Amino acid sequence: MRKLFITLICFATVAAVCACGPKNGKKSASKDGEIDAGKIAENIVKDTFDGDKNTKEAAAFWFKKNFGIGIKDVTPDFAFQTETGKYDFLGEKELSSYVTFVAKDSTLNRDDYIAYVKKVYEATAKVADGGKNVYGFMAKSTAEEAAAEKSLEVVLDEGKPTKLFGFELYTGDYTWDFIKDGIYYMVDLKQLEKKRNGEDCPFAARATIGKGLQKNMDETMKDVEKALEDPEVQKQIEKAAKEMSK
Predict the structure, then answer these.
(1) What pLDDT score was predicted for residue 9?
(2) Greatest CA separation found in the chain?
(3) What angle, 0 to 180 degrees and rounded to 10, lies between the N-to-C axes of helices 231-245 and 2-18?
(4) What is the pLDDT of the chain when averaged over all its residues?
(5) Are the C-beta atoms of 212 and 137 separated by less than 8 Å?
(6) Are the CB atoms for 179 and 130 separated by under 8 Å?
(7) CA-to-CA distance for 100 and 166, rounded, in angstroms?
(8) Considering Cα of 102, then 105, then 110, then 111, what sign does the dihedral take?
(9) With bands split at pLDDT 50, 70 and 90, how would you rate the model's confidence at 13?
């Protein structure tokens, strides 16, 4: 477990250091939950997004460019709030991107959430090589196992509620990978919760997609260790650490 934790931290650090692209820009003035089509078209011509990364437009642009997935394909069928928060959306060139939808009355029904998980599962399978979602190297150690189909039934079974001391334990986490143009992408569906009358209550659904491991854990660990030996990478990590400590 410790090795896995260290690996993920290193992998994320290297990815962050090596990432590039604009980071600043004005937040979209649109508050009706619709995409600013003009902004999207403008950035398609530029082949990159030069606006605020924490906008629905940024998420829509990078979901389509990075993963070939339209924003409508990751928009739930349940009623959701059109007024969005600052960090409900994220669109990044190299790192993970995500979309978040807050239920209309801030109470996310489990059946509605499961239906959303199914919708995203179908969306990723549609653009995937071979038309299937797979286990990926986070779950399996060999290339053959990693590329094997991970069925919707397996995904839902892994995320189903469990019993602990007579109480139901449900995290609302569902994960799988898909391969597009030979590259593994990892999908993570989360049910977001907040305190209400002293209890954790689900209120939103978030779908995150980003590059997954392209090799098994041992091989990835070696690549990370090699990358961390790069003097330039070390300088960037040190710089980032100093900025975070301010």
Answers:
(1) 43
(2) 57
(3) 100
(4) 84
(5) yes
(6) yes
(7) 32
(8) negative
(9) very low
Q: Are 51 and 36 in contact (CB under 8 A)?
A: no
Residues 6+ apart with CB under 8 A from 204: 88, 100, 101, 102, 103, 108, 191, 192
Enter the tokens of residue 222: 């070696």
Query: Which segment of 66-80, 94-108, 132-146, 163-177 scores lowest on mean pLDDT?
Result: 163-177
Say how far apart CA 140 and CA 203 lie, in whole Å.
32
The answer to whether the CB of 115 falls within 8 A of the CB of 156 is: no
Coil, strand or helix: which one is 51? coil
Locate 45 and state its tokens. 């011509």
Percent of the chain with pLDDT over 90: 60
Using the structure block, give the residue that is written with the tokens 């209550």: 201
Written as one string, the DSSP assignment of 12-24 is: HHHHHHH--S---
Per the listing, tokens 């994220």 go with: 90
The pTM (predicted TM-score) of the whole model is 0.76
C-alpha dihedral sign at 45, 51, 54, 57:
negative
Strands 167-169 and 162-164: antiparallel
